Amino acid sequence: MKTWLITGCSSGLGRQLAEAVAARGDRLIATARWTDSLSSLCERYPETVRSMSLDVTRAGDAAKAVALAERAFGGLDVLVNNAGFGLIGAVEEGEPEEYRPMFEVNLFGLIETTRAALPALRKRAGARIVNLSSGAGISGSAGFGLYNASKFAVEGLSEALAQELRPLGVQVIIVEPGPFRTEFLGRSMLTAAREIDAYAETVPARRRYRETNNGRQAGDPAKAVAVMLQAIDAEHPPLHLPIGPRAHAIAEQKLDSFRADIAAWRDISIATDFDTAGEAA
């Protein structure tokens, strides 16, 4: 039996994962900003599930959740940083009051929750930290730049964290889902209020995508969660875990583009060291 702490359990992949974890008999601290949506989960699994309010942007909440895991179940094996939301709009269109709260949740809240959990996780052999990124954390796209930035930051942080924790027996998994049929394009996706005509050829397509695809995404959340559980349970889990055909296509296109840029400019861009003869002189 593992003990889990999952943020953002009120809906989406967080809720699907919480349901699956509880159903298989693991112990769970299910958290959300408002816990009304979690009461049915606690009622069905009174021995193994606890819930509490956790706003990842509020100082001290994460430490209280970790303390609950230790008090109720004796420790913590898996932290899943799932809480987050998105923002559609050109970089110039976004206002600070729209994008800064997104960074507070997607990045800084994740950092503080992770820091609060690490002392407990380091006590458990085989502990896992699962950070929810996105296909948008792999490659940037017009109209998603600010959201891309928050998820690119999660990727870089997670890669460094994986190197720091590997000698301690704690593994990090970056989950990079494509489009799944959750509420992400609904209440979890905001749209910049400002629209600038200069971006009419690029950004409106992203706005229309939200309007026409919400609730119609091809991805089955239950299948995504099954993949996540398999990776978390694996003895040697992947650091990067794209889920779904679209996420894999994004990753492959990014790798091809990156390699093409590197190859085209390699001879020019590597010739930048000091000339040995000149140094000697």
Structure characterization notes:
This protein has one domain: NAD(P)-binding Rossmann-like Domain (Rossmann fold, 3-Layer(aba) Sandwich), CATH 3.40.50.720. Helix 1 crosses helix 7 (221-233) and helix 3 (61-73) packs parallel to helix 4 (96-121). It is an alpha/beta fold. The protein has 9 helices and 9 strands. It has helices at residues 12-23, 39-44, 61-73, 96-121, 145-165, 203-213, 221-233, 245-269, 276-280, and strands spanning 3-6, 27-32, 49-53, 78-81, 86-88, 128-132, 171-177, 189-191, 240-243. It has a 7-stranded parallel sheet, with helices on both faces. The longest helix is centred in the middle third of the chain and has 26 residues, at 96-121. 47% of the residues lie in helices and 15% in strands.
Key phrases:
two-stranded parallel ribbon, 281 residues, globular, Rossmann fold, seven-stranded parallel beta sheet, 9 helices, 9 strands, alpha/beta, 15% strand
User: What is the name of the CATH superfamily?
Assistant: NAD(P)-binding Rossmann-like Domain
Number of domains: 1
> Helix count?
9
The residue ranges in which pLDDT falls below 50 over 5 or more consecutive positions are none
The span between the termini is 67 Å
Taken from the alpha-carbon principal axes, the silhouette is: globular
Backbone structural class: alpha/beta
Oligomerization: single chain
Give me the Rg, rounded.
Answer: 21 Å
CATH architecture: 3-Layer(aba) Sandwich
Instruction: Look at the structure and give the CATH class.
Output: Alpha Beta
- Overall helicity: 40-55%
